[in-house]
Design the sequence.
């Protein structure tokens, strides 16, 4: 069998809107609440067996707004957290692909490894299920790289945030 995964981006935060980069656990902004509500309305007729989110407030809030009125198990998983940027205040996709951010941060490859660990566990536990995932940019790009067997260069070029090609859910099949 296989597992159907639908990835959803968390709603916007004030930090996103100001293009800030740091490790603060921001809640959704007014715009983010509106985005999560709209996203929930777009998928209200889709069936999910469970929802797994990052444990960051913005991802949990997005999931609760989208799915809170349904009887669906919601699980938080730290492996879905956004990249730890250490003491950085900007992201350099090329530099930080292999090099961790200063001050105890991660590299993109380290995030990819924890997403692979997450997917390995999902494969063991949830065969035949349909799962909604609510998380962040670098975990989503890691999903895209792993699930669609793309290079980091390709994933970064196609990043929906750069191409402005957002959609209400990216679909993946985990075999």
Sequence:
């Amino acid at each position: 069998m296989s597992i159907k995964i639908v990835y959803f981006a968390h709603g916007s935060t004030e930090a996103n809107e100001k293009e800030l980069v740091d490790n603060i656990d921001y809640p959704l902004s007014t715009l983010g609440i509106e985005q999560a509500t709209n996203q929930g309305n777009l998928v209200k007729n889709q069936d999910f067996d469970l929802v797994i989110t990052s444990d960051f407030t913005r991802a949990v809030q997005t999931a609760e707004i989208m799915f809170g009125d349904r009887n669906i198990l919601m699980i938080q998983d730290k492996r879905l957290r956004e990249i730890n940027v250490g003491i950085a205040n900007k992201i350099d996709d090329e530099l930080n692909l292999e090099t961790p951010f200063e001050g105890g941060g991660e590299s993109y490859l380290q995030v990819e490894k924890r997403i692979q660990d997450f997917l390995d566990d999902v494969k063991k536990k949830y065969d035949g299920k349909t799962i909604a995932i609510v998380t962040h940019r670098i975990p989503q790009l890691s999903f895209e790289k792993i699930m669609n067997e793309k290079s980091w260069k390709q994933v970064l070029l196609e990043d929906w945030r750069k191409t402005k090609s957002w959609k209400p859910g990216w679909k993946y099949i985990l075999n």
Residues 108-125 form the longest helix (18 residues). The mean pLDDT is 93.
